[in-house]
Amino acid sequence: MSITDAFVKTLTTPSIISAITSTIFIILLGFYLRKKNIFTEAFGKNLAKVTLTVALPALAFNSFMAPIDGKTLSEGISVLIWGFLIILIFMFVGPFLYPKVQKSEREVMGILTTFGSTTFFGIPIVGAVLGPKGIMYSSIFNIGYRVFLYSYAYIKMSGLKMEMKNVKKMLVNPIVIATFLGLFLWLVQPYAPTVNVPTFVKGVVDTKAGMHSVAFFRIDQTAVWLWTPLNYLSQLASPLAWLSIGVTLGSISFKEATSNKLSWYYAANKVILVPLFTLVVAGILSSMGILSMSYVAIATMVIMMATPTATVASAYAISFNRNAVLASNASLVSTVLAVVAMPFWIAILQIINSTGLIK
């Protein structure tokens, strides 16, 4: 298939167009409601809390309610390794992208470049575009991200040694708990007691599939009454996250944020250069057989790395007075640019998949 044919196919695929328009329209709706004062800034923060403590944990856990096979397990391990590797690479390279600024600004911008809003911005989009397997890979990818975000980033931004309260914050985070619990259950399926159950597809019995054996804790098959409410909650993740992003954008002065050239340079690095590097290197590693990764795995990581500034990293800059104004401006500009750039990344990934460059 030629690139032209792949491009046309991508732009005429309803599921892809729907994912892109849903993201943009709901973010714009949140922005409009904030500008009209229908949603307050405080309400936007409450939306974010509900998303982070309820919807995203349900989304992460439910994504692991799936059969395990050799290929998926191998890719999951590759995603885990790459998740640690890519963060380590940008922890080292990030500051060198800003050679003309002062050392303090260079360190802050390097950290903001390394850590994106993978949980709040990335996972909902991955779920909309790539489905449950993409969500599973994004949750695995985030393990390395969270380890370094709550350790290296905290130490560099605070200038202090790692504190126990930060370790506790990382371990008791609802999304972390849901991810590790789901990952553990997914991995031990072959060794767990099984039960015979009818096959459920999206909560409905598939009469043609007959009975089959699954691990007793596969609630999508053994306890649909429990899986269904969790699924309803998980479906809230994307719209709530996008509404909250729109409310946040509507609460900040664009004029002040966009007047800083460094913010634009940073935003271009964060949502264009970083995911491009991820795509190229991950594609090379996969083609060489060093890390076994399919299109879904690579696309997941590219989307995750194309996200704007991580909320926690920005909060560190503000809390420890490390170029707080610059960090806030960079966060806003990168968010706006990410909203614009994400549809293009989704289209590029689909075109690459259609041409067979990544299978």
Range of helix content: over 70%
Q: Please trace the helix and strand order, writing H or E for each element.
A: HHHHHHHHHEEEEHHHHHHHH
- What radius of gyration results from the CA coordinates? 20 Å
Query: For the terminal residues, how far apart are their CA atoms?
Result: 13 Å
Task: Give short descriptive properties of this protein.
two-stranded antiparallel ribbon; 4 strands; single chain; globular; 74% helix; 359 residues; 4% strand; mainly alpha; two-stranded antiparallel sheet
Structure description:
The chain has 359 residues and is mainly alpha-helical. The protein has one domain. 74% of the residues lie in helices and 4% in strands. It contains 17 helices and 4 strands. The strands form 2 sheets. The chain has a two-stranded antiparallel ribbon with strand order 1-4. A two-stranded antiparallel sheet has the order 2-3. Helix 14 packs parallel to helix 17. The longest helix is centred in the middle third of the chain and has 32 residues.
